[in-house]
Amino acid sequence: MPKPALALSLSAAVLALAGCTKGAEQGPTPQVTPEAILFPDITDGKLYGSGCNFVPSDEGMGAYALALDKHAWIKLAGKIVTLDPDTTSAPMPKKGWSRYTGEGYTLTLGRAAGSADKQAGVVDMLKGSLTLADAKGQVVYKASGDIQCKPM
């Protein structure tokens, strides 16, 4: 008959190994790559309004997110995904919000620490980031770039 201390040690080892196996089965979080929302997407989907868009650094001039007062949109695998604002999140200039959720994703716009907003006519320009997390809260995309907020 095993001694109680040995039985506890063996039980702890079995539980630890079971935890390792479970983590190995899940694998890494799959990453996604948002696509630029193009003019036909905007006109066909009527994606208009006051708010902000996000353009990642070194990715051209296309917006990867539109964050307005009532919705935000991203484009994944050729499909426009609609997200609803978290009106308890920090407001962005021109009626946008910093956080949106829906369709299995959470989108967060963050201002870069220490960067000052710049004005270009009616457009507020700021440095920031876009973070996209899945339904489990795991980050599936993150990029730094420019946030452009304007009235429409």
Topology, element by element:
Blueprint: H1 4-26, H2 39-45, E1 51-56, E2 65-68, E3 72-76, E4 79-85, E5 99-102, E6 105-111, E7 118-120, E8 123-134, E9 139-150
Antiparallel strand pairs: 1-2, 1-9, 2-3, 3-4, 4-5, 5-6, 6-8, 7-8, 8-9
Characteristic terms for this protein:
9 strands, 39% strand, alpha+beta
Q: Could you tell me the mean pLDDT? A: 84
Content-based structural category: alpha+beta
Number of discrete domains: 1
How are the strands of the largest sheet arranged? 1-2-3-4-5-6-8-9
Q: How far do the termini sit from each other?
A: 78 Å
| Assembly state of the chains shown | single chain
Portion in helices? 10-25%
Question: What percentage of amino acids are in beta strands?
Answer: 35-45%
> In this structure, how is the largest beta sheet organized?
8 strands, antiparallel, barrel
Number of helices: 2
The SSE order reads: HHEEEEEEEEE
Description:
With 152 residues, this protein is α+β, with helices and mostly antiparallel strands. The protein has helices at 4-26, 39-45; strands spanning 51-56, 65-68, 72-76, 79-85, 99-102, 105-111, 118-120, 123-134, 139-150. The chain has one domain. It is built from two helices and nine strands, in the order H-H-E-E-E-E-E-E-E-E-E. An eight-stranded antiparallel barrel has the order 1-2-3-4-5-6-8-9. The longest helix has 23 residues, at 4-26. It is globular and about 50 Å long.
